């Protein structure tokens, strides 16, 4: 029996989710909902076997729908996901899950109560390059993890219903929580709005973990560079993931600082530490 799926929001990113779910064996796209009539017309032509509707009411009233994909604009994620879970549907929500922590807690509690699966589209956790570095961390290849930092910047796409951090940072936050592997102790952030009042175009944030590790995130849609990179620094080696690169997405640097003070309480810099610089490894990673 096929899983009957409904997609809510088939615009900029929703159309990609729709295409990918449609390609999965055992999945039937029962409904597609979008408020934009031009989107509905396009979807109706591309997926004539699916019911294309303007509102979500038919989806949540149809007991035969097993799961819902939420790909609306960010401010609507919580409300649509809440309706879906209350209707007893397994729910996939494009990132971010919600705009407030209490909303995210509410959705998690609802999923538990209703016995539904709730998943957020943190796609980097399934990206081969990021999985490769996760294995390096787990195996101890990088040594003791110190810190990581990410850069996710570009000129555009400029949003009007969410800020640059809400739009871009969930990817890197999910990786930070995955890689650091310990509880968050604090978060600080600063940003600024230049193009639209109240909507931050650039945000710098630092996440502190109880292990002493930190993760620093830089997000902006007002930048001359297109960069999507993460650097992870360990005591033995360092890893850089460049998601913009078409090939050679991961580089492992055999670099670090060896401390050799021993029992001396005081030592000259040259005696106490030496900088190690070895090979750079570029692993072959199957896409």
Question: What does this 3D model show about the protein?
Answer:
It is elongated and about 75 Å long. It has eight helices and 14 strands. It has two domains: 3-121, Rossmann fold, CATH 3.40.50.720; 124-281, 2-Layer Sandwich (Dihydrodipicolinate Reductase, domain 2). The protein has 287 residues and is an alpha/beta fold. The strands form two sheets. It has an eight-stranded mixed sheet with strand order 8-9-10-7-11-12-13-14. Strands 3-2-1-4-5-6 form a six-stranded parallel sheet, sandwiched between helices. Helix 4 (77-86) packs parallel to helix 5 (101-114). The protein has helices at 14-22, 37-46, 57-61, 77-86, 101-114, 128-139, 164-180, 269-272; strands spanning 3-8, 27-33, 51-53, 67-70, 90-93, 118-120, 145-155, 184-192, 202-209, 214-220, 222-234, 238-242, 250-259, 273-281. The chain is 28% helix and 34% strand.
